[in-house]
Every structure is written in C-alpha cells, then in structure tokens.
Input
Amino acid sequence: MLRVARQIFRFRGLLATLTARELKARYRGSVLGFLWSLANPLLLLAIYTFVFSVIFKPRVPGIEPYALFVVSGLFPWIWLATSALEGSMSLVVNSGLIRKAVFPAELLPMVAVLANGVHLLLAMPILAAGLAAARLLGYAVSGVAALLLPVILLLQLPMIAGLAVGAAALTVYFKDVRDLLANLLNLLFFVTPILYSLQSLAGRPFFWWLVRLNPFTPFTAGYQQILFFGQPPSSSLWLQMALVSLAAWALGAGIFERLRENLVETA
Amino acid sequence: MTDPAAIAETGRTPAADRGAAPGTRPPVIRVDRVSKRFRRSLPGDRLRTLKSALVGGSRTRDLPREATIPAIEEVTFEVTRGESFGVIGGNGSGKSTLLKLVAGMLHPTTGELAVDGRVAALIELGAGFHPEISGRENVYINGAVLGLSRRQIDRRYREIVEFSGLGEFMEEPVKNYSSGMYVRLGFAVAIHTEPDVLLVDEVLAVGDEAFAHRCIRRLEEFLASGRTLLLVSHSLDLVAELCDRVLWLDRGCQRLIGEPRRVVDAYRQAVAEQEGAEHLAANQQREQETDASAGDEPRRWGSRQAEVTAVRLLGADGSERYHLQTGEPAVFEIHARAAQPLADFVFGIAINTPRGFECWGTNTDLEGFVPEQLSGEAVVRVTCPALRLAPGEYAVDVAVHARDGAPYDYHRRVLGFTVTAATGGAGVYFPEHRWEFAGGVRWGGPADPPRP
Output
C-alpha cells in the first residue's frame, strides 16, 4: 500500500496531465463544454429546491432548507460514488495501455478520483450561493467553519482513492465487481444520512446503529457539519473520519498490491 | 557523451569497441532462471484466481502444470552496461514475454530478475499512445511515463519532432496516424528520453528504409554513450549487425546464447531443417496426389528399370543439410537401384528456383562418362567445392534415364534447400566478388561487412 502511494506520488506530474486530459475529453464536442460542470450541480439543486419546497413540504425540524441540507451531503457522495464506479472500470477500459506499454496502472483509477474531485470543487460555488441566499432569507445555515472544506476533502481523498484503486484491481479479475458495486452504492446511499439526519432516527435504535456503523457516515456528517450547519466537527468526528479514510486506503491499496503480480496479463 | 560529428565521421562503432566482454562490467539486466507461466483462462478460473491471490500465498507458481501455459522456461542471462543484446526465435517462442518481463510489466513466475536504471520499452505498435489526443500531448504523456518532468520534455521536444519528421502532424490526434508515423513518434520519444535501458520489439520493421537507417544510427550513438539495448527482431541481419550477443529462444527455452553470427547461423540452420522437413512432407504428399491423379505435370515418371531411392544434400563434413551459406561446399548424394543390370544409363541433376527457373543442370553423358553397367544398389555423388547460388530457396531434380532420353526414373523437386548469404544480392548466381573504389567516392556505412 505504501508502494501504490509512492508510485502515485512519483508520477504526480503525469497524473495531473492525465486528469486535465480526462476533464477536457469529457466535454469535447459539447456546446456548453466546461459549463456543464457548473450547470449539473445547479440544476440538481434547483430540482431539489423545487420538489421539496413546492411539491412536498417535508416536516424536517432543524434541517431547513431541506434541499440545501441534502446537497451538502449529496455532492460529496457523488464524488465518492462516481469515482468508485469509474475507477473500477479504469483498468479494464485502458487494458491496451497497460498490456502493451510500461504504464503505472495505479494512476488510472486515480484519474477518475481526481477528475470527479474537480467536479465536486466546481459544485461548491453553487452550494455556497445557495447557502448565502438561504442566510439572506433568514435561515441560520453555514458559517466560517465551511472554510474547513479543503481539510475534509484532503482527509477523504485516501478513502476514495482506496475504493477506486481496490475496485479497479478487483474488476480486472472479476467484471461483476462493477455491477455489484453500483448496487451496493445504491443501497449504502440510503443507509447514509444524506436524505435525513442521524438525529431523526433517535427513536429507532436498530436503524440508528445501522447508520452509525456505516463507514460512509462520518464524512457525510462532517460535510454537513461544516457546510450546512457551519460548525467545526467534534474531535471524535475528526478521529472517525481519519480512521475510516486510512482503513479504506489500506484495504484498497492492499488489494491492488496483492493482485499486482498478474494484473497486466489478466487485464 | 560521444560527439555526434565523430560518429558521422567513423560510421558505425564496431561492436568489439563497445567492450562487449560480459562479466567485466556490472550487469544492467540480470535474468536468473526466470520462468513465466500464464494461467489458462478456463471458465470459473478468474474467481479462483482472485480468491487465491487475495487469500494469500497461492500464486501462479503453485498451480498444477496443466492449469498453466509456459511462455518462458528457465532463462538465464546477463546484459552489461553499453551492451547490445539481441533476442531471436520463431513466433510464440517467448521473445515478447521476455521483453515485458524485463520492462517490469509482467512478473516472473519463478526466478530472479533485476534491472538497474530507467527502462524505456517500444513493445507494440502505437502502445502507450492515447488515440484521441494530439501527437504533442502524447509526447508529454509518454515522456512522463518514462520519468521525465514537463520541463525536461520541453527541452527535448524540438529534437523529438525533428527526429520523427512529423512536424506538421503533431497537433493531429494520433488515431489519424499511419503505422509508420506511430513508430516514428514512439521511437523518437523513447530514444530522446535517454533511458538507461531501451527495449525494442520488432517495431522498427514498420518504418521506411530511411527511417530505419536513422534509427540504427541513433541506436549506435545510444550504445556508444554507454547505454544498453535489448532488441527483439525477426530481421536476423539487423540483429547480427547491431548486437554484441544474441539469445535464441525456442518455444520458451534458451537454445543458444553468444556471438551473433554464430547464433543467427544456428537458428537459420534449424529453420531451414524445419523447412526441409516440411518441403519433404509436402513433396511426398504432392507425389501421392500426382501418382493418383496423373496431372498434366507429374513430379515423377519413368519405367523404373532403374530407380532413385534417396537424394540428400550433404555439407563438407558429410552431415545432412537443408541450409547452406553461399560459397559453402555442397554434395548431392543420389541413391539408386537397378533391379536388372542396365548398360545404358545416364545420371542427371538440376537445381531450380521454386518457380521453375533452371539455375544449373548437368548429367553424366554431358560430362563424358560412358556407361557400362548399373546393377543393384549404387551411390552417386556430385560435389561442388563452392556452391555459389544467390540467397533463396531451391529445389533439386534428379533423373536416371537412357542415353536417348527415355526415362527410367525422373524425379522432380525431390529435395528442397535454402541458401543464405551475409549480404544481399539478386538473381540466382552469387560469384565471389569485391568492390574497389578510387577517386571522389566515400562511404559512410560499414567498412567491411562479412564476405562469404
């Protein structure tokens, strides 16, 4: 796992080039081009706002405006889920590259992680604008603690990288990983307090514990804390985030390292 | 660094000057009893593979033999700094697998492999290029994979473009490149990133003649600057010319390793023997077919009062040959049998090209032998102290007939053999010759390529 990290660090320049290329390639041939990276989160926020303030009006004390609460957890979740899914296919899709040329394979899932990270960063101004608008309307949301965002992002990077790298290596052997992963992520989405707050489960110990023990919960709570509530996370939450992130990296990179021997010939 | 002007002046650096003596310098590539076996991909295997790899311990080497395909078996060699090492062998002999092992793309199943320094590999056409993006961007990505920073590539970029000769195409996506352009760009990047070890697999054959020459000149400079080359090629002449030592792989096993010309000759001999056997099998099959169908051009006809029972081509030492170097001594040995004693008989032999052009033919009558008696078993030998045929394939016709031409046994294409020469030449005849020059003519190429 250290070797995977070393390789990624050694080829960081190449990783940056490849990520830039990936971002450029994504919008090649589209009229709005890079604007989609801003338009996508904006439209998502607009839809949620419309649905939850015009169509349903959920009674969710403490997490209003609800649409902003949801996207505070949802945007980071999208980073995680798309990185893991795209990352899982990265070695298979680029098998020509790693089978025929000397190429540091661990970079390929990392490109997915970083490219989607950039999309998350581009969604943040949209969220900030939404939160600022809510404050003007008199809601007590956000605050200076939102400036901790870079810290949480960097702290979560190993976790997402671990997921993508591990899934990529597994998918080489076992294409089913992608479908398993997609369904698993769908399931996990509902066990992660994105559409609801952990507090709202207080009366139901089984669900409370289920969500509490979900390894994806600490980061979601962390993002909601700083972005939506404008509160710095407690030291216990920091610790949980750090542990979950390290564990995910160790697991993912460990899997990659274990499978490395036959990776090229199997891809 | 060697002064490029000096190289232009002296032409190619003779292999011996590069200090080919192995063992006197530390090895750059050390391959020690390396074997590589691939798993057979049977259904359900992937899951097993995954499980065994994750659970631990169990690797390819622990699998039963029948579950694997051997690609390389127990190969051992060392390559020293500044050495040019060639690998030859037929298709599927494991050459590319060996290269990928040295490149670090594959890992040995058993054995030890160590490479000291930065490695660049040209393994497959267009490999490592992203088809959708421009040649320029690909140069940067390729350079970065080879371990160069952006600034280092900036410095070399102009040279790379110049060497590849792709100036106006650098902004085009490489998917629009021809195969020659892929090779030009790939080679240009690899050589200009100045790796310690360069691995080249065949790809040079795709470029045109002029580019191939430029590559070879550049490889000579590369070697002269103390770097190391591992070259896989089917172009035996190129290997013999450029390499200090050559490894011959035969179905994954190390057949021979050593001085290039010796290894290349041994390989050619083996190939020719193989072809000879195939020639023979094909001949016999066609013979049976013609015997059965009696087509318009039979391969064997005659009354069989006398019969050719065997024809062999022998070398100077009496061993059976299917391959000759031009100018080598050759003996055609004809075994014949006459059931009843004959007083009127002529032995004849002719050498033809596969398309039926007669290069040479003679018989005992033409050369003044007066027959008396042929009975029982007989052996006739035609010895050529120096058979000066041009490189190519040849077939031998042998006949026993009466002096008026009435055939006893006329046997066409009874034997096939291959002739090679150290240099090229067209036609069928390859006389001993040399070139001499005087006055305002000067050559930049090799001073004295080996003469037959």
About this structure: The interface with chain B takes residues 11, 13-14, 17-18, 21, 25, 28, 96-104, 170, 173-174, 255, 258-262, 264-266 of chain A (CB under 8 Å).
